[in-house]
Every structure is written in C-alpha cells, then in structure tokens.
C-alpha cells in the first residue's frame, strides 16, 4: 500500500512453501473474521433503534471501511498467493503481473479505508467529547445531518489523499509485493527512489496528526469524566446542574478510547516501515507483519464493541432473538403479499436526512 517493499524475486520456493501456506491460511481466516464481524456490526447498527444516532452512523461508516478491506483488498492478496503456490513457484514476483490493473484498485482502496478509519475514530472522539463536556448542547451541535455530511467528507478526502502519490510523480506506481503480500506504492525496478518519494511521508503525517488530536480529545474527555465521578462520590448523589452524565455516555467514551488505542497500536508498525522506506531501508519480512497487523485491525472493532458496549451486546441479542426472527418472517410474508415496506438501510437513509429538532 504505502512503500517500496518489493524484494527481487520474492521468497525462495521449496523450503519456504509451508511458511507461505500458513500465511495464506492466515489471510483466508482474516477474510472470514473481517466479513462476519463487520456484517454483524452493520446489521446491529442498521436495525437497532438505539443506534439511530450520530454515533451509530459513525460506527456504521467505520464498519463499512473495514468490510471493504475484507471483501476487496485481502481476497486479491489471497488470489495472488494461491496462484503462486498452485504453480509450485512460490508467491508471484514483483514484475509482470505485479503491475496489473487490480493493484491500482486495491492499493488506493486499502490506503483510503485506513484514512477513513482514523478520521472516523477522530469524529467519534469529538462527538463523545461534546456529549461529556456539553451534554445540554450536544443535540444542537451534533445532529444526524451534520454527521452524515462529515462522513461523506471523510470518505471523499480519504480516497483523494490515497491517490496523491500517483499524481505527484510519474515515477511512482503500484506493484504487488511478494514481501508484504499486498499492492504497494513503488518506483519502477530500474529506478531508485528519489526526492519525490518523500511524498509518502504524507500518509503517516496525516494519520499521526489525527491520532494526536484524537488522543488529546480523549484525554480531555476522560479528565472531565474523572472529575464528574469524583464530584459524584463526594456528594453521594448525582451531580446537580446540566452536567449530568449517563452510564451510556461514560461507556461509549471508554469504548472509543479503546478503539483509538487499538488503531494506534496496529498503525505504528506501518509508520515505522514507511519512514524507513523513505530513508532507503528495505525490510522485507517486517513489511509483511506491518501490513497485516494493520489489516487485522479491521476485525478488532466488533470484539471491542462486544466486550465494552452493553448497547451493542443487547443489539446482537435482539438481532438473533425469536421475536426479531419472527418479525422478519412476518415482514417477508407481507412483502410477498404486496406490502413493499422499506428495508432497514433505506429507512436509516431517510432518517439521516430528515429534518430534526435534535
């Protein structure tokens, strides 16, 4: 995705075949985990009434970005590796097919979805900060319509940024790397990276700027929560005035803090790798772990929601309860009889742009 991680010839076939097969199995497992986890998240966010909020829309955007990685980016890597193993020649090298059209699709998609994830986490942190610091003003400041426009802006800016290297220099291209096992931005093999390669520093600079702002906002939010809890303990009852926080507000802030930490931990190896690549280092083995640790982050969010968010757990229970299954079957039979009610996703879209007082 981000750097010239290609190694001439790729890993040697033969003795490395079992290791490459294990890596391929890991990729297939990631496809299953990312797809199932994020489909479950989307079903809960779109069907559960408690997620028809600005926070729910932002989490839906985050799940869509992760699901795109699992359905587009990882399957292409599996295809390339499986093709190489089937031919008993190891993974496909960096030349020839490595410069095919799919790399110009999957590479920017992976970069764009990464930027969408961090920008969405930043927006989630801002939303929770407003809810904690100014609970009386939250409904006036953080509206559903504004949230939707911010989500659209986040996606458009993220994917525009993802293709900046391709337009900034005619020497930068996208090529499948047998080291990272992904499509990476790279220079042609006959050329060495020059000063134009410094544009790759734009990616970690953008991410760490947003991460730094996210950590600062979370620090302020948790400081306010700590002050509120301390005051409540001293008074022995709820804090009077307009700064009363619900358990749901505090839990949501903690969940977003954990999302921020998880993304930072998964992104840091990539940042180190990109900076090293710009400086001229080629870390073949490290590039694989860096890229796939970041990719695995796409299946962490559903686990974090399940562990820390009671509303999400309740939404999952409701989704699979007999009552919901019965209601779904009734809606299906009604549609068969001519009652074509709007699907859940259409109802959510209508609600997003509906004028609201809150």
Question: Can you tell me about this structure?
Answer:
The chain is mainly α and 358 residues long. It has a single domain, classed as Rhodopsin 7-helix transmembrane proteins (Rhopdopsin 7-helix transmembrane proteins, Up-down Bundle). It is built from 13 helices and 2 strands. Strands 1-2 form a two-stranded antiparallel ribbon. A hairpin with a 4-residue loop joins strand 1 and strand 2. Helix 7 (202-235) runs antiparallel to helix 8 and helix 8 runs antiparallel to helix 10. It is globular and about 70 Å long. The two termini are 41 Å apart. The relative contact order is 0.15.
What is the strand and helix layout of this fold?
Elements: H1 17-47, H2 54-86, H3 103-133, H4 138-141, H5 144-162, H6 164-168, E1 173-177, E2 182-186, H7 202-235, H8 247-278, H9 284-296, H10 300-308, H11 310-320, H12 322-336, H13 344-352
Antiparallel strand pairs: 1-2
Helix pairs in contact: 1-2, 1-10, 1-11, 2-3, 2-5, 3-5, 3-7, 3-8, 7-8, 8-9, 8-10
Subcellular location: Cell membrane
Protein name: Beta-1 adrenergic receptor-like
InterPro entries: GPCR_Rhodpsn (IPR000276), GPCR_Rhodpsn_7TM (IPR017452)
